[in-house]
Amino acid sequence: QHIESARVKLTNPEVTVHLEVEDDRLLLIKGRYEGIGGFPIGTQEDVLSLISGGFDSGVSSYMLMRRGCRVHYCFFNLGGAAHEIGVRQVAHYLWNRFGSSHRVRFVAINFEPVVGEILEKIDDGQMGVILKRMMVRAASKVAERYGVQA
C-alpha cells in the first residue's frame, strides 16, 4: 500500500528495528547481550583448571573460557573445609557468570596425606617442586578419567 505521508529518516531515525534473516524466516531482535568476547564456549576442547582460590588460577580459567574451552575444576585441598568452600565459590562464580550454558565438574582432592608424606620424606629445598609434581600427576589421572584433553 502506498501512503504519501509516510517517510523514513535514515540519518537520524526515531526507531531502529533490528531484524535477522535466517533461511526462510525473518526474526525480530528484541535485545542484545554482550558476551565475554572470544569463541563460544564448547567450540574448543574441554580443559581441567587446577584452581587454588588465588587470583591467577581464576584469571586463567576465565581466559580459557574466552578461548571457547569448557573449563572443569580440580582443587587440591591443603587447608581444610573453609578453604574448599571459598574455592568452590570462586569456581561457581566463574561458571555462573561466564560458562553456565555448559555443565562442568568440580573435583576436590584431599591432599593433606600427600603433604604429610612429603614433609616426612623430602628435603626442604625440594618440597615445593615435589608437591607440584604430585598435583600434576593427580590432575592427569582426573583428566584421563573424565576424558579431558588438557
Question: Which CATH class of the domain at 47-146 is shown?
Answer: Alpha Beta
Based on DSSP secondary structure assignment, what is the total number of beta strands? 5
| CATH topology (fold) name of the domain at 47-146 | Rossmann fold
Taking pLDDT < 50 over at least 5 consecutive residues as the criterion, the unreliable ranges are: none
Report the major sheet.
Answer: 3 strands, parallel
Strand order of the main beta sheet, please?
3-4-5
Bin the helical content: 40-55%
Based on the structure given, which CATH architecture of the domain at 47-146 is correct? 3-Layer(aba) Sandwich
What is the mean pLDDT? 91
Count of alpha/pi helices: 4
SSE run: EEEHEHEHH
Our measurement of the CA-to-CA distance between the termini, rounded to an integer number of angstroms, reads 61 Å
Word description of this protein:
The chain has 4 helices and 5 strands, in the order E-E-E-H-E-H-E-H-H. With 150 residues, the protein is an alpha/beta fold. The chain has a domain of 100 residues: 3-Layer(aba) Sandwich (Rossmann fold), CATH 3.40.50. Strands 3-4-5 form a 3-stranded parallel sheet, sandwiched between helices. Strand 4, helix 2 and strand 5 form a beta-alpha-beta unit. Helix 1 packs parallel to helix 2 and helix 3 packs antiparallel against helix 4. The radius of gyration is 24 Å and the shape is elongated.
